[in-house]
Amino acid sequence: MSNIPALAEIEYRAQRLLELLDNIRLSGLDFDSREHLHVIGLCLDTALAHVEKIQKGPETKGE
């Protein structure tokens, strides 16, 4: 876990998400679950894009 509170909270949520997804995998899916998982996937795409932006650091403006 990170010593930065915001990162620690995100790490906790990510771990919890993995645990819940594992439970879903074990119990199977119904139609509604697939739709929800699609939305979760879209949210994760957005989250990953933000993390990649953070990793790149501040953008420098060209002159």
Protein described:
The chain has 63 residues and is mainly α. The chain has one domain. Helix content is 78%, strand content 0%. It contains 2 helices and no strands. The protein has helices at 5-27, 31-56. The protein is flat and about 50 Å long. The mean pLDDT is 86.
Number of strands: 0
User: How is the main sheet built?
Assistant: none
- Low-confidence segments, given as residue ranges, are none
Shape: flat
Kindly estimate the percentage of residues that lie in beta strands according to DSSP: under 5%
Helix content estimate: over 70%
The number of helical runs is 2
Write the layout of secondary structure elements.
Blueprint: H1 5-27, H2 31-56
Characteristic terms for this protein:
63 residues, mainly alpha, 78% helix, 0% strand
In short:
By secondary structure, the chain is mostly helical. It has one domain.
